[in-house]
Structures are given as C-alpha cells and as structure tokens.
Design a protein that fits this description.
- Chain A: Residues 2-218 form the ABC transporter domain.
- The structure holds 2 protein chains of 2 kinds.
- Chain A is built from 6 helices and 10 strands; from the N terminus they run E-E-E-H-E-E-E-H-H-H-E-H-E-H-E-E.
- Chain A is of the alpha/beta class.
- Chain A has a 5-stranded mixed sheet, with helices on one face. Chain A has a 5-stranded parallel sheet with strand order 6-7-8-3-9, with helices on both faces.
- In chain A, strand 7 (155-159), helix 5 and strand 8 form a beta-alpha-beta unit.
- By secondary structure, chain B is mainly α.
- Chain B has a single domain, classed as MetI-like fold.
- Chain B has helices at 2-40, 45-60, 63-73, 83-108, 112-120, 125-155, 167-178, 182-208.
- The chains are: A alpha/beta, B mainly alpha.
- Chains A and B meet through strand 6 and helix 2 of A and helix 5 and helix 6 of B.
Chain lengths: 218, 213
C-alpha cells in the first residue's frame, strides 16, 4: 500500500497541493484526472522526488520513505515522463541497462537479459541496437516504460501517457498498464483523458482547475 | 629544389614547435574549459563572478598582449617563465576561456528533462554528467570547437613575439636572409597541411557522433 499523508506543496504564494491524502492498495491503478494546471504533474513530481513538498509524508507498506532520497538509493517510484526523455546518445539497450548496472550494480549480462525479456514483453524485440530517434513515438514510450521497470520499482507512475498517441497506440498502452497490473505492479496515471482513466484505473481521483489539489481520495 | 632542401630542416623544426604548442594547448584547455564552464553554471555566486571576469579578460584582450604580459610582465611580481612555458601558459589560459564559453552554451542546450530523468533513475550527478550530459554536449559543440582548433593552428604563429622559433619565424628568417619569397610560400603550404589534418580529425569525430540525433 502506497500512502500520501497531508502533502502540501506551494510555489511562492500559490498552494498547489493542499493537505492531500491518497491511498493506493498494492497492485492497483490510481488515475488522477483533471485539467492542465490543476497540480497533477506537481503531485507526480513530489512523488518521484523532483519537488519537495513543504509538508506531509510518503509511506510504503506503513514505512515512511523519502522520494528525494540521495542518488544510488533503492528505487521505489519509477516514472514514465510525458515526453519519455530517453537518452538520445544511448541505444535502446543502453538506455535500459545503464541505471541497473550503475545503481543496482547488476552484472552486464544479467541486466541485458532482463532488458531483453522486458523488451520482448512490450513488443520491442529486435530494437535493442537502435537509437531513440529511429523509433516511433509509441515505441519510444514503451522503451521508457521498460527503462523504468528495469529498475524494479515498487510503484510505476505515468505523466500523461496518452497525450501524444493515436487511438490504436492509446489502446496498446492501456493494455500494457493492465498487463503490468496482472503482475501486481502498483501504478499511478496522471492524465486529462477521462475515458482512458475510466477504462484502465481501479480508482479515479478527479481534481478541478483553480482549486488547490487537496482533501481525501477515499 | 636544392634550395628547398636547404631550408627544409629549419622550417620543419619551426613547424615542430608550432605543433607542440598546438597539441599541449588543446590537451590542457579542453578539459579545463569543461571545468570552467561548469563553474560558470554553478549556483555559487562568487565562483561564477570570478570565472566570468576571467573569461571577459581573456576574450576581451588580444592573445598577443597576453603573451607579452606573461613573459615580460609577470617577472615583475616574481613569476618567471621560460619562453616556451610562458607561451603554453598564455595559450592555455586564453583557449580555456573560449572553450569554457562554448561548453557553457552546450550544457545549457541540454533539456532539463534529461537531468530529471537521470535523477529519477537514481543516477548520481557524476554518472549523469559522464554517461548522458557530456556526450550530448560534445555533439553540440563540435562545430564551434572545430573553428577554434583551426584558429589555434594559426595563432601559434604569435609566439614569435617572445622570441620562440616557430614555423612563421623560421620562414621569415630565411626570406630576410635569402631575399626570396619561397620560404614563406612553403610556410603557407605547411600551415595548410596542419589545418587540413586538424579539420580531417574533427570530421572523423563529427562522424562518430552522427550515429545518433
């Protein structure tokens, strides 16, 4: 169970997250839906340690953790960014194995084997030696998902996973998210795509524009 | 032909001096330029101010003046260099400033998302720099670095001012002694060969980095 307790985040005078409480049971999918500027991405950035909230705590299975823990610490939250942010100078395989090798100290062979297994699972077999620019948008997104999964996170977050995809690909990423659910992966989807959220998520948390994102989700 | 054979040894000795200054300047000032550029981007204001001042002075005054200053000026405050060391010192300080500005631009061109993505993957700052940022910066800066490298080949001719025997000086001496332009034509050909080799090497580096976009 992932819990967010009393998370408050301000930018200057403006309160973006106001005493927010969220609970996500293991293996479930939570979608956070709302218009741009409602604080969805800020929430995701706090959860992944890119922003530090003024107040509040994060708990995994009752144990508090610091999302902004120093580098080389254990991976708790994996993130698939809206624009994927693959490393253009590395091949698909290198993109995926870099962090497992450097951070998790996996052996090269083991890291590559795991990467190949995940690539196969997400229909990317044979793309190992390509560079990101040689892939389509949908393929780049799936590489980003594999890259996050290779770090063996406890929770996987997506920032606007459908925003750049055509309907067929949108369906495909939905299937991937549901297949990861079958493997008991806890997932958080930030999106403005209400239909996608309803199709995929176990629970949908709706936020409104102008209000600070706050209150209890349950 | 026999005349060319006669003057060739002195021209080649001069060319060797130019090549030594060229290579040592490059080897020292590229890594130093990366370090200074990181300092120029640091959040520590005093460091930034000092480095900005350094770059301003180095780029804002002629290299010729800097050479004279290092060789004739610094001894006044007790810092004495041999001619060759003075030349290297002035060249490295000058080119470090140019390279630092080029690298600063390169670092600023890397999207913030690349750093964030690396951070979320739990890479350390150093790992992010070495594996992700610097390769991308190199690709961005190669064309500008290339211009400076070709300039550097030609700038080595400035060392005559502190009495070092470089290629141009060797040619000048022969021309004055033998009252013919042949040595200077040869000097031009040798400079062209040196810039040609440098450009060729840079093209190879550029090709190496064109595997990805």
């Amino acid at each position: 169970m992932l819990e967010l307790k009393n998370i408050t985040k301000k930018f200057g005078e403006r309160t973006i997250l106001d005493n927010l409480n969220l609970e996500i049971p293991d293996g479930q999918i939570l979608a956070i839906v709302g218009p741009s500027g409602a604080g969805k991405t800020t929430l995701l950035r706090c959860l992944s340690g890119l922003e530090t909230p003024e107040q509040g705590s994060f708990l995994l299975n009752g144990q508090p953790f610091d999302p902004a823990a120093p580098a080389n610490a254990e991976q708790i939250i994996g993130v698939v960014f809206q624009d994927y942010q693959l490393f253009p100078n590395l091949t698909v395989l290198q993109n995926i194995t870099l962090a497992p090798k450097l951070v998790l100290k996996q052996k090269e062979k083991a890291a590559e084997k795991q990467a190949e297994r995940l690539l196969q699972q997400l229909d990317l077999a044979g793309k190992e030696q390509l560079y990101p620019y040689q892939l389509s948008g949908g393929q780049q997104q799936r590489v980003a998902i594999v890259r996050a999964l290779a770090m063996e996170p406890q929770v996987l977050c997506y920032d606007e996973p459908t925003s750049a995809l055509d309907p067929a690909l949108r369906e495909k990423v939905g299937q991937i998210i549901l297949s990861l659910k079958n493997e008991k992966m806890t997932q958080v989807i930030v999106t403005h795509d209400m239909d996608f959220a309803k199709q995929t998520a176990d629970k949908v948390f709706t936020v409104n524009a102008l209000d600070a994102l706050g209150g209890d989700s349950v | 032909m026999t005349y060319i054979e006669q003057i060739a040894p002195s021209l080649l000795a001069g060319a060797w001096m130019s090549i030594k200054i060229f290579l040592w300047t490059l080897i020292a000032s590229i890594p130093l330029g990366v370090l200074v550029s990181l300092g120029l981007l640091s959040k520590f204001k005093p460091l930034r101010a000092i480095l900005k001042f350094y770059v301003w002075v180095m780029r804002g005054t002629p290299l010729l003046l800097q050479l004279i200053f290092v060789f004739y000026g610094l001894p006044i405050i007790g810092i004495i260099f041999q001619r060759y060391d003075a030349a290297l010192c002035a060249f490295i300080m000058n080119y470090t400033a140019y390279f630092a500005e080029i690298f600063r631009g390169g670092f600023q061109a890397i999207p913030e998302g690349q750093f964030e993505s690396a951070k979320v993957l739990r890479l350390t700052k150093w790992q992010t720099l070495m594996h992700i940022v610097i390769p991308q910066v190199i690709k961005i800066v190669i064309p500008s670095i290339g211009n400076e490298v070709v300039n550097l080949v030609k700038d080595t001719s400035l060392v005559y001012v502190i009495g070092l025997g470089d290629l141009l000086r060797a040619g000048n001496v022969a021309t004055a002694r033998d009252v013919t332009l042949v040595p200077l034509v040869l000097v031009g050909v040798i400079y062209l060969a040196m810039t040609g080799v440098a450009s060729y090497a840079l093209r190879k580096v550029e090709q190496h980095y064109s595997k990805w976009r």
